Amino acid sequence: MSAIRRMTPEDLNAVLGIEAASFGAPWTRALFEDELARENDRVWLVAGDDDALVGFGGIMLAPDGAHIMDLAVTPEARRLGVARGLMLHLAREAADRGVARMTLEVGAGNTAALALYASLGFTATGLRPRYYDDTGEDAVIMWADTARPAAILAAERGEDLVLAIESSCDETAASVMRGGTEILSSVVATQVDFHARFGGVVPEIASRKHTEAIVGVIDEALERAGVTLVDLDALAITYGPGLIGALVVGVAYAKGLALGTGLPLVGVNHLEGHIFASKLADPELEPPLIALVVSGGHTSLVHVPAWGEYHTLGSTLDDAAGEAFDKVAKLVGIGYPGGPAISRLAEQGNPAAIPFPRAMLHSGDYDFSLSGLKTAVITYVRKEEAAGRTIHLPDLAASFQAAVIDVQVAKAVRAATEYDVRHFCLGGGVAANTALREALRSALADNGVRLSVPPFSLCTDNAAMIAAAAHFRLTRGAFLELNAEATASLPLGV
Ligand code: KG4
Ligand code: ZN
Questions:
Q1: How much is the pTM?
Q2: In a domain, 171, yes or no
Q3: 70 and 162 co-located in one domain
Q4: Which ligand is nearest to the CA of 408?
Q5: If you measure from the C-alpha of residue 263 to the centroid of ligand 1, how many angstroms do you get, rounded to a whole number?
Q6: Better pLDDT: 171 or 205
Q7: What is the Å distance from ligand 2's center to 207 Cα?
Q8: In this structure, are 295 and 443 located in the same domain?
Q9: Is the same domain home to 403 and 450?
């Protein structure tokens, strides 16, 4: 990107050239000279290097906000991010002067400019009919909080300080992150003990516990990071998918915080967060890739051709993988959550002891079904009990786990081959399963595919992964409007 600096009178010849090439009714030299003289309430910037300017733009600082006066880029330099860079810097100048909002008018037919401004966090608020004298075209009026483009600029520089909040299931979590990679704090308050005696997450309890924990968790995340709300560039919130009563607690709190502080809000899809947990652990993880997200609520195989583009190839038709671990653990009475208990037991068991079904192993698609396996385990346990035999729990755990892993590994390898990717990542609570990690790593390696996994602390729900995904969304200017709602079944890619 070109260097951006203050406009001086010496720039005016070049500026007038760009102006004349851009508009049917260009501004005159006298107008520009007048603007440059008004140092108190004007900021004019130019982009380019010393021998050639490629663009310029200016704002007027008024009590109701900063008005974009003029912005133009040479035809040769269009689509290179020059206008975007100028806008980001103008917003930063306004934000630094305590001006909270900025506005502009743009031709209603100028779809490229409308898209650019939308990606900078502007929203259309009205129309001025036949605004342009020369063409009679309508103008769209757009507004943005200056904090939005200022946050995008910080993210582009890798300096954004983001507070992320996660409350989609049974963990209340908050994290402060710089530049999408540096975890300054990650606080997780788990409710697992409150759900344990029910053998699964009770939505009403989850919702209640989030409301109890959220203030303390956020305060602790800020304190451990050594920052306060005024230091932040943006807030991030998981707004789906998940338990609706749990999601709304975080979403409502984040909206209130955004309203009270004026900070822009970024909405993150929980599953995207699980994918970014691997990116946090392995910066070299890059699309095109395939991701397997396996948790208590989800089992999805996703093709990621580029960050932000997600094609779900298949998912579970019934129970999620973690849910199957939890239900089997409950059946044999070894506690909740079931995943860690079963994987520990499985270490001493024989995975070939009981031939449990490999559901949909040869279904030819990327969907999964785990309820049949659960039923097979129930049937096996009942039969053994009826026959008066004691169940060898390690063998049962190892055989059940192997049945889950075999199908996941087979579909993972097939997807990696079909979509011809060199990178694969695993995410979600079940990604903490060592046997799954190892089976996947070796099967993928045999096919020349590199596996990235998060550290154990980032497998189960946390807010650091939400902050990492938010950083990426921030660089694209994807903000959540304050009237957006928590969405229980939010599809990936939204
Ligand atoms: O991602 P997560 O914290 O919450 C959801 O988004 O659902 O995942 C929790 C799930 C639980 O079902 C738990 O049993 C499972 O992850 N899990 C495991 C292991 N550790 C946690 N499953 C298998 N093996 C593990 N070691
Ligand atoms: Zn999760």
A1: 0.92
A2: yes
A3: no
A4: 1
A5: 33
A6: 171
A7: 16
A8: yes
A9: yes
